[in-house]
């Protein structure tokens, strides 16, 4: 199993995106109305652009009004990046609109099939796939991101993220994932994001023989005062092989599963202390009202929290955890 980025690499990443994060607080995109719609179609003459990136690049860098890019059905074999705020990237449905690329992490480059480094971005109805670990047979598994979110106020609806090692990088900022499908095996949801996953399906896939359990999450939180963490409300974990719910990428890692269905792929112990075996009292790993054959906590690690008070649960509600300023209520309606 591949390793997560080194500390120097991670800190350089944080410096690169911190400007976008602070900028996001001052941008409201002019309300919840879409000012313009751009159509992408791979056939010349059927849209405004034939590539997704050219459509993104046509938007001014200091954009402050909602601009929608609608992607017609097709498989787009590219990697794309959003570096402008107030952008809606809308597919025609994740079953018919796919962005596919095959690339693995090489120091110092950290490239995903899809990357968003600007605040106020909405993504819906698209499959993002990194094929690197999914094709080619017996090569060594590498970090290969399907998507990375590096800024505040990203809302993602009805999308699919397909990969194996480090599929989805919730790097920094507040993120809302709803009705998404996330596939992988090794730390396939990771980062320092303040991220809320509602009714998402996590598919833990094992493609190697005689392999130990994988990990759904590797959340990074370096201080007890950091507001970040991962909250999974509802949804399910299914797949093949065996999977742990998470391991800490930082000394105060925080992951909450709340009302989630666990199939039998979830290991009895559930969690791993990884590099922090002497600091488990600082970790916040909780399972609340979860169901399914994998939800039996009798053999869980002793430091997993089996109970949270009403005030604790309120802290992890959608409104309290990522929506205290009401930004989710001021988004344009989503069609796909």
Automatic annotation (TrEMBL):
Top-level enzyme category: hydrolase
Enzyme Commission designation: 3.1.1.11
Record InterPro entries: Pectin_lyas_fold (IPR012334), Pectin_lyase_fold/virulence (IPR011050), Pectinesterase_cat (IPR000070)
Keywords attached to this entry: Aspartyl esterase, Cell wall, Glycoprotein, Hydrolase, Secreted, Signal
Reactions that this protein is recorded to catalyse: [(1->4)-alpha-D-galacturonosyl methyl ester](n) + n H2O = [(1->4)-alpha-D-galacturonosyl](n) + n methanol + n H(+)
GO biological process: cell wall modification; pectin catabolic process
All residue ranges annotated as the Pectinesterase catalytic domain in the record: 42-324
Domain of life assignment: Eukaryota
Keyword field contains Glycoprotein: yes
Range of residues in the leader sequence: 1-26
One example GO MF annotation: pectinesterase activity
Pathway assigned to this chain's UniProt record: Glycan metabolism; pectin degradation; 2-dehydro-3-deoxy-D-gluconate from pectin: step 1/5
Main localization, broad class: secreted
Pfam families in UniProt: Pectinesterase
Cell compartments where the protein resides: Secreted, Cell wall
Similarity field: Belongs to the pectinesterase family.
Role this protein plays: Acts in the modification of cell walls via demethylesterification of cell wall pectin.
Protein name: pectinesterase
The organism's taxonomic lineage, starting at the top: Eukaryota, Viridiplantae, Streptophyta, Embryophyta, Tracheophyta
Gene: LOC101500688
């Amino acid at each position: 199993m591949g390793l997560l980025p080194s500390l120097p690499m991670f800190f350089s990443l944080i410096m690169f995106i911190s400007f976008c994060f602070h900028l996001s607080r001052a941008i409201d995109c002019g309300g919840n109305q879409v000012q313009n719609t751009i159509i992408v179609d791979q056939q010349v003459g059927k849209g405004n652009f034939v590539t997704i990136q050219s459509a993104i690049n046509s938007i001014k860098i200091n954009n402050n009004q909602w601009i929608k890019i609608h992607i017609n059905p097709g498989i787009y074999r590219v990697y794309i990046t959003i570096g402008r705020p107030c952008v809606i990237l809308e597919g025609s449905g994740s079953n018919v609109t796919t962005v596919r690329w095959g690339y693995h992490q090489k120091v110092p480059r950290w490239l995903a099939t899809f990357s968003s480094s600007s605040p106020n971005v909405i993504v819906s109805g698209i499959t993002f796939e990194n094929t690197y670990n999914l094709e080619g047979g017996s090569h060594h598994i590498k970090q290969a991101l399907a998507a990375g979110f590096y800024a505040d106020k990203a809302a993602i609806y009805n999308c699919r993220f397909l990969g194996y090692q480090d599929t989805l990088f919730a790097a920094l900022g507040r993120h809302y994932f709803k009705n998404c499908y996330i596939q992988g095996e090794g730390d396939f949801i990771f980062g320092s994001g303040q991220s809320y996953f509602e009714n998402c399906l996590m598919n833990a896939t094992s493609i190697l023989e005689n392999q130990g359990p994988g990990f759904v999450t590797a959340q990074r939180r370096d201080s007890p005062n950091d507001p970040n963490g991962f909250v999974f409300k509802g949804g399910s974990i299914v797949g093949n092989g065996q999977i742990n719910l998470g391991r800490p990428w930082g000394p105060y890692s925080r992951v909450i599963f709340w009302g989630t269905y666990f199939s039998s792929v979830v290991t009895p112990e559930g969690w791993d202390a990884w590099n922090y075996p002497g600091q488990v009292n600082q970790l916040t790993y909780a399972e609340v009202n979860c169901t399914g054959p994998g939800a039996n906590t009798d053999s869980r690690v002793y430091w997993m929290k089996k109970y949270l008070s009403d005030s604790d649960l309120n802290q992890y509600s959608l409104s309290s955890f990522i929506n205290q300023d009401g930004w989710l209520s001021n988004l344009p309606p989503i069609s796909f």
